Amino acid sequence: MFKRTVFQTIKSRIEEDRKFIQVLMGARQIGKSTVVKQVLNETDVPYQVYSADNVPASNTAWISNCWAAARSLKQNNGWDCILLVIDEIQKIANWSEAVKKEWDEDTFYDRNIKVLLLGSSRVLLEKGLSESLAGRFEEIRMSHWTYQEMKECFGFSLDQYVFYGGYPGAASLIGDADRFDQYIQSSIIDATINKDILMDTPISKPALLRQTFELGSAYSGNLLSLNKMLGSLQDAGNTSTLAGYINLLNESGLLSGLQKYSVDMSRRKASIPKFQVYNNALKMVYGNLTFEQAILDRKTWGHIFESAIGAYLVSQAFVHRFEVFYWRERNDEVDFVLRKKGVLVAIEVKSNAEKKTEGLETFRKLFNPKNSFIVGDGGIGAEDFFSMDLKSLF
Q1: Nearest of 301, 239, 298 to residue 273 by alpha carbon
Q2: For the chain, what are the domain ranges?
Q3: How far is CA 10 from CA 3, 37, 135, 302, in A?
């Protein structure tokens, strides 16, 4: 069975001495539960697994009952330690308070009970962690599947990855466009918006949130001002509303609005956003071209290719904790600017001979990035770039 690289990280964390609550985080449908099952099948640590999938949200006592069962198993079997795994924990109201209470009690009484939490909602997990569990947890962040993983596990070609993205559940459906689109819509987009965002966040205009996502995804890889969006959306309200919705979509691992790189933070905040999906499947589900048609349309394929590069960057940025911007000044532009702890990397995407790249040289003179290069024609090949360890760039 195929194992993602995060497999070893999870395994080593649960086998080391009890230090922190381990929290596995990532977008929907990227295989979090699957990789945890693989780890449990290969570890010698005794474990007990529970899922809050069908538990009423108001039943906060359920978490305490899970803990009590784990404590009882550990004591009755004379185990030195036990691993408690709780899936979909974000579905329980005030889950972080209950976890904090039980974890602190185990710490006080020197009970060697390790804890691994995971859930399908990045938004709700992060909210609970920041509210109650500061200093008690450690994140393990999972990204969407990379090109190398989709190639090795499902035999994807580079062009297929660029067009269809990296959702493992959809890999077997690429031969049937309707089934593929339906899976992306129902299992990922609808589930994330309805169950993750709307369930816990007061949204005055849910229809507008969905429209914002659809328009932003269709424009992935392009700049689109919020004022122009207002003219395209029904009952759009104001730009502050749209900005808030884009932030929620970003926190959910669906759609990011990249800011223009500037040393001045106020200028970054006021910049026109460059929309970028976290997985190119989210863009293509709103396209009107088939895979075969898109490849033959060189201009359209160039936009799809740039969006695929950006999707890889923002997905990896979540895991490796760096920032992604774009840069534009008059006629000069750089497609993506990465920053981590003050270190800059500039990346220009060139999918055809017509695209100018003078902006990269201008950016080098102005900001002196540690690394700067072209991906595509005349630069690093896409396959090599998708295989690159982005941490090594900083």
Answers
A1: 239
A2: 6-141, 147-393
A3: 12, 11, 19, 37
